[in-house]
Amino acid sequence: MTMQKYSNTYHVRSYECDRNNNLRLVTLMNIFQDMAVLHADAMGLGFDYCLSKGLAWVGSNYEVQIERLPKMNETITINTWPAVEKKAASIRDFEVFAEDGTRIIAASSQWVLISIDRKRPVSLKENLQDYSILEERVLPTEFNEKIDELARVDEETKFRVRFDDIDLNRHVNNAVYALWASEAVDPEFRLTHTPYRIEIQFRKEGLIGEKIMVSTECNEAITSHSIKTYDGDNRELARARIEWKPLVI
What confidence tens digit (pLDDT) does each residue in 38-50 have? Predict the structure, then answer.
């Protein structure tokens, strides 16, 4: 069967918007995850199927480019599809359209297929023989380059992993890391800027109750972030890089 884009519409509600009437970043990331789950289910390769085979999809990377964020009461259309198949991973792309058909967000994500028991990547082709792709890209990234370590630390922000941050896999949901990174910049800067480009690389699992430190390096309109545990084993959970642009209301 030829792979087709999976499409759905979302109506943006008031409680999903921030103080500037823009869709919250964490909600956008959750919508991407929802679309990935729905499409995987439609392909017959979703959560329940993978669980029955002792397998799970684990997110490893995101790149998101935002022309603008949706507003309250706006109905947006999201398309998604698997665009690249690797040995143990797949790249899934997303595009978000406004009501007038203008594409306002483009995103790519990389997902690794793992064995739940061994917590190790396994072959996509050997374990999901029916997996197929649509060779079309919204962003050219192949996620081959790592986000650099911080050259210095300009800000440090502490969080604690809440029960509400944990997903079905019993670790911190991927959407939370984008929230932590964006909340770790100076509040005055955050009030006057909005994310334009976001890169996230997930490295380790975050667990309920852990104390989190987000170290931030600020370079004009670009912030880089290292997200680690502290008062424990000091695991680096993720790295993020955000390009900002002035907020237009």
Answer: 999 999 888 889 9
Nearest Cα to Cα of residue 161 among 153, 151, 171, 152? 171
State mean pLDDT over 170-187: 96
Does the pLDDT at position 32 exceed 90? yes
DSSP 44-113: T-SHHHHHHTTEEEEEEEEEEEES---BTT-EEEEEEEEEEE-SSEEEEEEEEE-TTS-EEEEEEEEEEE
Domain 155-246: which CATH number of 3.40.30.10, 3.30.70.141, 3.10.129.10, 2.40.10.340: 3.10.129.10
The predicted-structure confidence for 39-92, as pLDDT tens digits, reads as follows: 999 998 888 899 999 999 999 999 999 999 999 999 999 999 999 999 999 999
Residues 88-94: contacts with CB under 8 Å, at least 24 apart: 88/112, 88/113, 88/121, 88/122, 88/123, 88/124, 89/60, 89/113, 89/121, 89/124, 90/124, 90/131, 90/133, 91/141, 91/142, 91/143, 92/36, 93/136, 93/137, 93/138, 93/139, 94/32, 94/35, 94/138
For the full predicted model, state whether its pTM sits above 0.85: yes
Whose CA is closest to 131, among 40, 35, 49?
A: 40
Task: Identify which of 174, 238, 186, 249 has the alpha carbon closest to the alpha carbon of residue 212.
Answer: 238
Query: What tokens appear for 77 in the block?
Result: 């259309």
